[in-house]
C-alpha cells in the first residue's frame, strides 16, 4: 500500500481564492469530461482547507470519493492511485495550457494525497514558469505514458490465449524498466477494456494517450505477432511491428522473451527517434 505521510501544508492563500482557482481548473476539458477528477480534487482541497489533511488516506478517498464499499482493501486494489495519477497529469495539463498565467498553483506531490498550494510568482514559481510547463519535480509526470491492451487471438485455444496474455504482461513489465516511459498496470487496463471498448474513452478513464495493442496468429509452422502503437485522441496508428517465429513447445518461455524483446526494443527506438527530448504526455503506453 502506498505510504502517505500526514502533514499540515502551508497555505499562502485564503480559502475563497483557492476555491475560485479550483473552479477555473474545472473549466478545463480534462475536468469537464471527468466527474471523478472534479470530485477527487474538490474533496482533497476542501478537507485540507478544513484542517483534515491527516485523514486524506487511500482508504478514505476510495470510500468517500470513489464510493467503494467499507471493506475496500487498498492493498488489493490500486484504483485510488490510478485516479491520483490521472489527477496529477490533468493539473499539469491545465497549468501548461489555459492556466499558464494563474498565480495559484494546486498540485498533489507523488506519494501523497494532500494538495499543495503554491504562489507561481514567488521565486520558486518563477522557475516553474520559466522551465515551461510542468509542476513540482514529479518525475513520473514528465514521462511518456502508455497502456497495453490484450492482444487479439482469433480462433485460439486456451493455451494460445494464455501465451498471448503472458506476452502482454512481460511487455508491460519490461517497459516499466525504462525510466522515460510510464506504464499503466496491465491487469488494470485489461479489466477496463470491456467497460470502455473505445480507445478514447479508455484513455480518458485512466489517463493515457497511447495504446500498444496487436494480434497473434498461430499455425503449425508459424507464430505471427502484429503490434501497433495508437494515439487514443486521433485513433492514428503511429508505429507498427511484425514478428514471426516457428513454434516450439519446448521453448515457450524463450519465445515469449523474444517477442517481448522485439516489442520493447523497437518501441524504444521509435519513441526516442520521434521524441528525443521526451516532452510530457498525459498518457500511458502499453
Protein described:
The protein is α/β, with parallel strands linked by helices and 286 residues long. The protein folds into two domains: 15-141, no CATH class; 144-285, ABC-type transport auxiliary lipoprotein component (Rossmann fold, 3-Layer(aba) Sandwich). The chain contains ten helices and eight strands. It has helices at residues 15-25, 29-32, 35-49, 58-64, 79-96, 123-131, 158-175, 186-192, 199-206, 252-274; strands at residues 104-107, 116-119, 144-148, 181-183, 210-218, 223-231, 236-245, 284-285. The strands form three sheets. Strands 4-3-8 form a three-stranded parallel sheet. Strands 5-6-7 form a three-stranded antiparallel sheet, covered by helices on one side. A hairpin with an 8-residue loop joins strand 1 (104-107) and strand 2. Helix 3 (35-49) crosses helix 5 and helix 7 crosses helix 10 (252-274). It is elongated, with a radius of gyration of 21 Å. It starts with 14 loop residues before the first helix and ends with a strand. Mean pLDDT is 78; it is low at 1-7, 123-143 and 276-286.
Amino acid at each position: 500500500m502506498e505510504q502517505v505521510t500526514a502533514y499540515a501544508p502551508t497555505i499562502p492563500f485564503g480559502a475563497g481564492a483557492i476555491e475560485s482557482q479550483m473552479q477555473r481548473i474545472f473549466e478545463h476539458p480534462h475536468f469537464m469530461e471527468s466527474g471523478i477528477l472534479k470530485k477527487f480534487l474538490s474533496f482533497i482541497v476542501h478537507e485540507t482547507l478544513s484542517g483534515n489533511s491527516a485523514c486524506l488516506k487511500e482508504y478514505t478517498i476510495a470510500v468517500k470519493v470513489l464510493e467503494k464499499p467499507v471493506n475496500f482493501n487498498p492493498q488489493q486494489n490500486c484504483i485510488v492511485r490510478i485516479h491520483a495519477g490521472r489527477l496529477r497529469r490533468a493539473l499539469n495539463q491545465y497549468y501548461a495550457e489555459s492556466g499558464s498565467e494563474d498565480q495559484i498553483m494546486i498540485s498533489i506531490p507523488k506519494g501523497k494525497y494532500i494538495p499543495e498550494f503554491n504562489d507561481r510568482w514567488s521565486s520558486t514559481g518563477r522557475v516553474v514558469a520559466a522551465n515551461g510547463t510542468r509542476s513540482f519535480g514529479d518525475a513520473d509526470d514528465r514521462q511518456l505514458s502508455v497502456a497495453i491492451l490484450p492482444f487479439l487471438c482469433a480462433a485460439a485455444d486456451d493455451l494460445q490465449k494464455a501465451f498471448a496474455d503472458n506476452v502482454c504482461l512481460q511487455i508491460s513489465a519490461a517497459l516499466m524498466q525504462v525510466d522515460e516511459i510510464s506504464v499503466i498496470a496491465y491487469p488494470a487496463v485489461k479489466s477496463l477494456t470491456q467497460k470502455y471498448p473505445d480507445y478514447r474513452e479508455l484513455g480518458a478513464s485512466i489517463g493515457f494517450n497511447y495504446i500498444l495493442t496487436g494480434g497473434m496468429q498461430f499455425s503449425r509452422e508459424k507464430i505471427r505477432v502484429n503490434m501497433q502503437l495508437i494515439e487514443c485522441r486521433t485513433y492514428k496508428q503511429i508505429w507498427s511491428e511484425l514478428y514471426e517465429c516457428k513454434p516450439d513447445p519446448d521453448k515457450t518461455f524463450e519465445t515469449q522473451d523474444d517477442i517481448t524483446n522485439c516489442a520493447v526494443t523497437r518501441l524504444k527506438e521509435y519513441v526516442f527517434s520521434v521524441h528525443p527530448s521526451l516532452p510530457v504526455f498525459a498518457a500511458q503506453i502499453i
